[in-house]
Amino acid sequence: MFNGSPTTSINLIMPQLVGQVVIVTGASSGIGEATARRLVRAGAKVVISARRQDRLAAFAHELDPAGENVLSVAGDVTSEADRQQLVAATLAKFGRIDALVNNAGYGTRGPVEMVPVDLIRKNFETNIFSLIALTQLVLPAMRERGDGCIVNIGSVAGRIARPLSSIYDATKHALEALTDGLRGELKPFGVRVTLIRPGFIATEFIEAANTASSDVLANVGVYAPFYKGHQDKVKSLRSVAGVPEDIARLVEKALKSDNPAPRYSGPFHAKIFLFLKWILPNQTLAWFTQLKR
User: Fold this and answer.
1) From the CA atom positions of the chain, what is the Rg in Å?
2) What is the pLDDT of residue 239?
3) Residue 141: count of CB within 10 angstroms of its CB
4) How far is CA 56 from CA 93, 106, 177, 208, 243, in A?
5) pLDDT for 119-133, tens place per residue?
6) Is 168 noted as a catalytic residue in this protein?
7) Which of 147, 152, 278, 285 gives a 20 to 30 Å CA spacing to 262?
8) How far apart are the C-alpha atoms of 37 and 62, rounded to whole Å?
9) What are the start-end ranges of the H helices in the chain?
10) Is 106 within 8 Å of 209 (Cβ atoms)?
11) Between the CA atoms of 139, 118, 82 and 256, what dihedral angle is there, to the nearest 10 degrees?
């Protein structure tokens, strides 16, 4: 696990990533892309996965033209066959899996009353059920080896739910509980589990959420005035938005740590919001998130 002399204090605290095999899902853009870049720079062997095959292949070639330390495996995380192929291809190429970064996910927007249950199921399928299923595939070997790391990409929304984002926020609430339970289950086997809570990050996320929810957002009915207020708040948040690298840095920190924190949050505004959640009464905090008509 450690490189260099066991008496070197920095290695005792921060195991190196050189040679470690890490799968990153949702790696064709945003946080996943930034994470893959950072891990490759740190010397890890990185397996990138996403649905957009052409974009993924080009990104893999950019990271490692020789194809020695980067493998791209296109696929849909909600497909059982694609998940199995991702794990099988990783083992065939590198022979082991040291870490899994569960980053793939998207948002559903709109008033709960107006969102078809099928869309709600689909969002949970991607953000929670598929994440669990992929994690189940990589855990046996980690557990038997007595080493490994699972990094789940959550959200500040997992602690602070917002109107018109209830479905997505609920998936991230679920991920909070899942991560905590999994951490306790796997600790006796030497497998580390941690959660990263991004705040507002400038990525394609909002545009993708709008596209996934386009039919709902086009027919919000009596919620139309509230939806406009929501749009105005989202635009105002862009001024404090972080960049994907802010989160990639936290992922690397978690993977290098022999004893990662249960949760990491970033950028700075995320820590402020979570601190307010901790100290403010629920009614006061709710005032900040309500949409005024």
Assistant:
1) 19
2) 72
3) 15
4) 17, 18, 31, 17, 20
5) 999 999 999 999 999
6) yes
7) 285
8) 10
9) 9-13, 30-41, 53-63, 80-94, 117-124, 130-145, 166-186, 205-212, 214-217, 224-237, 244-256, 268-279, 282-289
10) yes
11) -40
- Catalytic one among 106, 168, 227, 264? 168
pLDDT in tens, 72-120: 999 999 999 999 999 999 999 999 999 999 999 999 999 999 999 999 9
Tokens 């995320």 locate to 270
From its phi and psi, is residue 221 left (phi > 0), alpha (psi between -120 and 50) or beta?
Answer: left
**CA angle, 94 as apex, 36 and 78 as ends, to 5°?**
60
pTM, entire model: 0.88
What domains are defined for the chain?
9-289 (3.40.50.720)
Other CB atoms closer than 10 Å to residue 10's CB: what's the count? Answer: 9
Residue 50 CA to residue 281 CA, distance in Å, equals 40
| Residue 43 CA neighbour count, 13 Å, CB half | 8
Question: HSE of 234 in the Cβ direction (CA atoms, 13 Å)?
Answer: 17
Is 72 within 8 Å of 90 (Cβ atoms)?
Answer: no
Average pLDDT over residues 141-167: 95
Buried-state track 52-73, b at ≥16 Cβ within 10 A, e below 16: eeebbeebbeebbeeeebbbbb
Tokens found for residue 266: 């970033």
Q: Would you state the structure tokens that stand for residue 205, as one six-digit string?
A: 């996320």
Q: Which residues are CB-neighbours of 195 under 8 A, at least 6 positions away?
A: 151, 152, 154, 158, 175, 176, 179, 262, 263, 264
